[in-house]
Amino acid sequence: MKFELDEDQREFRALLRSFVDKEVIPVAREWEQSGRYPTEIVKGMAAMGLFGITVPEEYGGLDLDPVSFALVFEELARGWMGIAGILGSHSLACRMIAMHGTEEQRQRYLPELATGVRRTGIGLTEPDAGTDLQGIRTTAKQDGDDYVVSGTKMWITNARHANPLPVLVKTDPSASPAHRGMSVLLVDADTPGYEVTRDIGKVGYKGTESCEVLLAQARVPAGQLLGGVEGRGMQQVLSALEWGRVNIAARSVGIAQRAYDEALAYSRERTAFGQPIADFQAIQLKLATMATNLQAARLMAYWAADAVRQGRADAETGMAKIFCSEVALEGAIDSMKVHGGYGFSTEFEVERLYRDSILMSIGEGTNDVLRTVVAKALVKGEASVG
Hints:
Elements: H1 7-34, H2 39-47, H3 66-79, H4 81-100, H5 103-115, E1 139-143, E2 146-157, E3 165-170, E4 182-187, E5 194-199, E6 210-221, H6 233-269, E7 271-272, E8 275-276, H7 281-310, H8 314-339, H9 350-360, H10 367-379
Antiparallel strand pairs: 1-2, 2-6, 3-4, 5-6, 7-8
Helix pairs in contact: 1-3, 3-4, 3-6, 3-7, 4-5, 4-6, 6-7, 6-8, 6-9, 7-8, 8-9, 8-10
């Protein structure tokens, strides 16, 4: 087994790290607390070509391998997890269009999505359907050359900037099993009846908007059906969410890395009883645990990313997302403990890391649901350990 990045990946990571250190970390706390949108950071990501990381080269993208894809989200989340979200939903939607779209759809959207001229997201979650995607209620009924779409989507990242927004709908609500009647429509921002109604307040994951989207008898041209064939929506979405779990695992590693960095630096500077607190065994034990878990999480994230490169990897990506997200939360809490009272202060980075880490165990499928996905794969012999 190989546990090292190749030369190209190391150079790419260095480029990402320099960008985050210079353009993200110095402003993240102030902008996050003020609610300021990170316009300049988005422009910087576009200039680096990061909006095209899952777009094929023939359409102007970088078409990164899954491990390099993971590096992007690890490094961005080390600086500010919220900006990783701006790129995350966009990249998954681009991959879905690249994999499943018609040639006309790819030609129309991917070149501008790759440059960031267009941005996108994914309209999946609803008020009564989160992880249970088959429980969505948004319907699309064909009327001549259009689909008439009715429903509400929630927690949609990039909603105010998405054009188009791929939306999961039921084109045949009576289908059994339900996924056979599900499709994805590419909804343009100027579609009549399509409206971003409100931003949802959040504990963390700031920097990017999370919105409620209303489709009130929205008329979407039939040519906007992803792939041109009904009934393949769930398959199309799941192919993107596999990369999404790598995305979340990598973001979690970035949060854990920053939590460790902050704890180590603070323990060296903070003195008590005449010496740095890093000299005390209680602090050393926390630092050692954080570092050990961090490195284990990083290796698992890269392992899962490499498994995606080799083919379908539901179990591997599920394991990585579960483990890495829990390491992120535990690391953020331990970093707060190392900081003591200052860990509870908004003047220090660690409180933001704690707020952002909580989402990692919820997003892209809750950890408990993913445990059942992993277990089923093991029982069926579709995955193994050892």
